[in-house]
Each structure stands twice: as C-alpha cells, then as structure tokens.
Amino acid sequence: MTWYLIECLKTDTMSIVFREGEFREWGSVRALTRSDGIDVAGPVAEVIASGQALSRVVAGRLGDRRIVLKPVLGYEGEVYGVKTWVGNPDEPVSPERAIASVNWDPQTLIARHTLESYMMSSHDADGFGDTRDPGQFLRKVVQFDALNELAELCTNNGTRTTFQGPLTVLHDDSHLMTWRGLARSGAGPEGDEVRGLFHDVTDTEPIRVDPLTALRLADLDRDGDVPPAVLVAFRTNPADPDDVVPFLIYWLSARPGYVAESAVVHHTDLPGNLIHPDDFGEFLRARERLGNGLDDYEVPSAVRLLAPDGSWVHVRFRLRCYPGAVGEQLLVGRFARVATS
Fold this sequence. Notes:
The chain is mainly beta. Helices cover about 15% and strands about 40% of the residues. A hairpin with a 5-residue loop joins strand 16 and strand 17 (about 310-320). The termini are far apart.
C-alpha cells in the first residue's frame, strides 16, 4: 500500500523522511501508528541491528498488516535507512524507488558511497569506485540549488546539523532524474561523520533545470528574441564505446511548432530521436571541440530535425557546454530554422 523511508543516520535518531516519494520533514515514526495502526519502531530497530531485510504480518489497531523492511547500507555496512512497506497481508508489495547511501568525511570532503549509489545513475558497474572527491561525486549533477547548504553541513562548521534538498542528475543513458538528498552531521561511532541518503523521486517531482543559468538569456539573437533551446545528451552503447548517439532530452524553451513532439510515429527505427541520423556526427564533433571545458565557447552546427509531418527541417545550432562538470556529457543547444529553396 505505502512505502516509507525511515532514516537512522545517527544512532539516536529514527524518523520518517519520505512517504511515497514525498519528503516528510523528519517526522516521528509514531505517525505510522496513527495512520496504519501499527508500531514499526521495534522491527526497524531489528533491521538496524541485523542489517538484514524483514517481512512479517503484525496485528494492529486497524487489523493485521504486512510490513516489509529493507535496509539501506552505508559503505562500511552499517544501516543508514530502512525502506518500509506497509499493506494488507494479501496485497502484493508495490515497486520501490531507488535509494542509496553516501558518507562524507568533513576533513577531506571525500565522498564514500556504495555500488547501489553508483548504479542509481548508471547501467555499467565498471567505473565504480567507493571513494570520490567532490568533483567526481557531483559530475552527473545538472542542477543542485541547495549545494551551498550541503557544503555547510559537510564542512562541519556548526551552521546546520541536517540537510535536505532536490537535485537534477543525468543518467548515463541520457535521461534526467530528480533526486532528493538528505544528511545529518555528528553521525558515526565517533560522532564526526556526515551521513546521507539519495532518493530517486522522478515520479513525484518535476525535473528542475534553470533556463537562465543554462541559456544565459542576456545573449539574444539579432532580432532580440530568445531562440529555441534544448539540452543535448549522448547515449553510449555499453557493448561498443564507439557507438555514441546524440539525443534531444529536455526542452529549455517551448518546443517550436516546426519540430515534432515525438519520433516514434514517423521513424520507428529511431524511437525517441528527433535528429537526422546522418547529422549525428555534427553533435559528436561539437562535443569533441568543447571538451576543453571553455564554458563561453560555442560551436555552430547545421543539422536536420524531425518535423511534425515526418519530413526533415534544416536548422542551425549553436552548441555550448552545460555549466559545471556535467558539461562534459551535456550540451546546451540554441537553434534557428534555416530557409531552404
């Protein structure tokens, strides 16, 4: 019936932080007693102590309930959170959202995470490493408005003891996700660690991308109008690193009427791709030229995009790196239609 996330980032804490993907402001576990008629504090404590999943039927004020508890383990094997499902005994367990842990060292800001954390944004475990410096750890983050608040917590300067906030993350297969991060300072056996959790809430929260940051809208075209703009990502075939395909993955402006909403109807051999296959190379060359990290540099490219009637419309792109480390994988493209005879 319902998934909860109960955090136990410090040994003396146990609070509900998510209910069905919605943040719950560090709520008391007694809320479960009020809503579902059962006390889960005891079973959650069992999972924290054992590090093992648990499934049982318990009697409650509203009748029997089935509870399923799954630990979210930290890099050292300790339990940082417990995914908790509550439902009727004969009810199938609903799909769970991806949740994983992270641990920050306040002295070095090194992030220590798990394979589960890494795989939240990847399909290939080959690049996994359990320790990452801040730049490596945040390399897939497209937008993180509350990063300064997390930094205050991780530097352990006493400004704050808890953190929670949304971030937009680019998956290796080129789709954007919304995550919620949360953390506590003063954690760990010695009380000197920062422990946190990341929760994929893409199905409950909209993708957040700031067009003003991405587009630098002060740079208008010659007519004073803001040109259409889109994020361009690159999907790499895990079996063949040379097989890289560009995709238009997120409209930063309104989609212009001369570009199709979907490629599925007209081009079943290119599901989801609005770019003419003969023009993939234009985007790959632009990405290579932009690989030097010059944020203000733009590469012009002439390509064809799919029109609503299935034909191809000629446009001229100006491509630049998306701000920040994710610019190695994500481009901002502004374009204008080119008249053809």
